[in-house]
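PROTEIN DESIGN WORKSHEET
SECTION A - STRUCTURE
LENGTH: 339
TOKENS:
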């Protein structure tokens, strides 16, 4: 009897099961009602009285060892089955599909980097703004047409709250919190109540620039913009400034670059003029400095604002503005190389 138990004990450590069926066979063989353990226990009554104590202890030991081993195998099987569920371990490795940055993000980053190299730091402001930061502090007259419902999305229950129509509102946000020297670049999304078409959208993106210090001149503005244009569109790019009007700058100008699609020869994109407009700019109107807490007798500034979609179109010739917000992966994947 003692030999039988010892042989069984030695067996226990060798027990293995690689699947549920094998485990069940082990259970039947050792732990079921007709299994080896039960037989052992049944034969216990034939053990001579003086050996009962020793045999009893051994029998309990084998019972514990068997149950423990069985539970261990059951556990092991459960975890391996879990880990492999749904995994095809025979499959060959395949290339992982990488996403791309959105073309507008690529171009925004390029613009920000160019100005960062000229010492501009990043600033931003809220897209849901108030009338003061978008219009009032930017020297818009109360009856300026841009405030019209036709152009601006207002919040119906709060006439003072609106979706910003330009990033110029960030100029005000920066100036009210800081004194010169100020040198910031502010990219962001803006909203206008436009019918959506290939050429217009109800939201788009702009980058605003603002420089305020003593002795700032229009020449400084022109040189910074020329440097930007050449960095962005290539060293042969030419610029020209045409007089214009914005409420927040005086004098104001619009800047054209030599068409980078035809190199200034004339093509459909530049309407055969050789020039394309890319931004608005000017010297910050003294009223704007004053409204935002900066003394116009001491400080001067220049500002500019451009549309990121426009710059992206020029670089990548995207013909339909709607492509930027449709999230068609075939379009987005075209920018893989630019990432
Ligand atoms: N805010 C103008 C717009 O949305 C763009 C602009 C023009 C910004 C001239 C400026 C500027 O800072 O000086 O059309």
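SECTION B - SEQUENCE
RESIDUE ASSIGNMENT:
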């Amino acid at each position: 009897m003692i030999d039988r138990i010892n042989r069984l004990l030695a067996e226990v450590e060798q027990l293995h099961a690689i699947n549920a069926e094998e485990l069940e066979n082990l259970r039947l063989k050792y732990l079921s009602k007709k299994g080896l353990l039960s037989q052992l226990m049944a034969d216990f009554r034939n053990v001579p009285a003086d050996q009962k104590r020793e045999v009893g202890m051994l029998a309990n030991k084998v019972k514990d060892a068997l149950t423990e081993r069985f539970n261990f195998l059951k556990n092991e099987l459960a975890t391996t089955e879990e880990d492999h569920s749904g995994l095809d371990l025979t499959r060959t490795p395949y290339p992982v599909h990488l996403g791309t940055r959105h073309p507008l993000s690529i171009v925004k980053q390029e613009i920000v980097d160019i100005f960062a190299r000229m010492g501009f730091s990043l600033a931003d402001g809220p897209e849901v703004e108030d009338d003061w930061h978008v219009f009032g502090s930017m020297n818009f007259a109360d009856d300026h047409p841009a405030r019209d419902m036709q152009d601006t999305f207002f919040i119906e229950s709060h006439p003072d709250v609106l979706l910003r129509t330009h990033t110029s509102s960030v100029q005000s946000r920066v100036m009210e919190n800081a004194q010169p020297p100020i040198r910031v670049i502010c990219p962001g999304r803006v909203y206008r109540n436009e019918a959506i078409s290939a050429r217009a959208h109800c939201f788009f993106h702009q980058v605003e620039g603002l420089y305020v210090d003593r002795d700032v001149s229009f020449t400084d503005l022109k040189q910074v913009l020329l440097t930007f244009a050449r960095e962005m569109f290539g060293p042969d790019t030419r610029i020209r400034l045409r007089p214009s009007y914005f409420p927040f700058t005086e004098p104001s100008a619009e800047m054209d670059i030599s068409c980078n699609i035809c190199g200034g020869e004339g093509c459909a994109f530049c309407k055969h003029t050789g020039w394309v407009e890319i931004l608005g700019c000017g010297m910050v109107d003294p009223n704007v400095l004053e409204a935002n807490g900066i003394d116009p007798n001491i400080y001067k500034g220049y500002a500019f604002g451009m549309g990121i979609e426009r710059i992206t179109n020029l670089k990548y010739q995207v013909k339909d503005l709607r492509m930027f917000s449709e999230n068609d992966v075939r379009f987005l994947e075209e920018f893989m190389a630019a990432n």
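SECTION C - NOTES
The mean pLDDT is 92.
DSSP finds twelve helices and ten strands in the chain.
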